[in-house]
Amino acid sequence: MQTAASWADCARSVESSGGVWSYVKPGTWPSCKLYENPESQAALIAFVKRNASRCGGFASSVQCRHKSYHFVDLSLPHTTYDPKLPGAGPTDLVHAINASLIVLEGGKSPAPFDLRGQREALRLLTHYLGDLHQPLHVGSIYLDGAGHALDPATEQEAHDHSNAGGNSIMVGTAKLHGLWDDVSDKLLKQMVSGPGLAEARAVPPAKGAMAQWAADWAGESVVQAGKAFKGLKIGAKQAGAMGAAWPATATDPNYRQTREALQHEQLVKAGARLAQMLTTLWP
């Protein structure tokens, strides 16, 4: 499961140029090494081609559609998922999880998704459920040029004030999103052989139809995303070598410890909930 979970991210290395699709920059991501062989790369390319018209330089999220499967950018004041809200949409993370479940239940991949076979769907579900519990993959703080938070009323307003889930908020030289993506070896060991297993067994099981679970958990993750921005002071947008971004400084001296504690909590939930989905699919 741990190696399968990286497959969806490895697909980000598939690009097109002049109508030719290829897996670019092998060796960049250690977690993708397992898939850097002709057969596996062909499977990654096939998945991306079915779910995108163009990827690579100057490709939008509409063209390189599979990349949008990894996130929802709900504004922090909204703690209930609604596909009509700015930052959500028909190819967002919640829809991607449900499309994967449909295929795993033996159904046909719903448009606009084009998922083929249970192996592919299971790899995607394993990754996407992890993304759903990474707070900055779901909740977003929208900012004006001065660094003040706002709640966009329209998709255009969300686009104009987006920081790509914290990717354009810099804490020193690090992207805020990257800090929350990074899972330390210590945290991983806690999940596998430490207290994580016992804590996972204590997570209350989801109730109701499985098709509703991802939406419910997305709302919960927005609440958690709000905690990610507490203890941060965000400044005015500035031009930089990596493009325009908002600088942020931690005003809470324990911000790192708070982040790691929340990461631990979310990893426990993600593991328990993946287990519930799998045992529901295959009792």
Automatic annotation (TrEMBL):
GO BP terms, alphabetized: DNA catabolic process
InterPro entries in the cross-refs: PLipase_C/P1_nuclease_dom_sf (IPR008947), S1/P1nuclease (IPR003154)
A Pfam match: S1-P1_nuclease
One Gene Ontology MF term: endonuclease activity
Keywords annotated in UniProt: Disulfide bond, Endonuclease, Glycoprotein, Hydrolase, Metal-binding, Nuclease
UniProt name for this protein: S1/P1 nuclease
Organism encoding this protein: Roseateles toxinivorans
